[in-house]
Design brief:
This protein has 72 residues and is an all-alpha fold. It has helices at residues 2-24, 34-70.
Length: 72
């Protein structure tokens, strides 16, 4: 059960990284998807950037604490 929780924490960390990279425009899309993605990013980049950073920070701390707890 401990490993399953750690797996989910890594998944949420990856989600936070993806959301932050999308909000900053680092992720590229195909030509057909680019106009919709750019419009969505322009409208929502502020809260997505903050949410991504918060998720990255929280999950990083949770992963460290989880690993420390596993080795005690």
């Amino acid at each position: 059960m401990e490993y399953l929780g750690l797996l989910f924490e890594f998944c949420f960390l990856a989600l936070g990284i993806y959301a932050y990279r999308f909000a900053t425009g680092k992720i590229k899309f195909s030509e057909t998807q680019r106009p919709m993605a750019e419009q969505f990013r322009k409208e929502n980049s502020g809260w997505m950037r903050l949410t991504g950073l918060a998720l990255i920070a929280i999950m990083s701390v949770e992963i460290v604490l989880h690993i420390v707890q596993m080795f005690r």
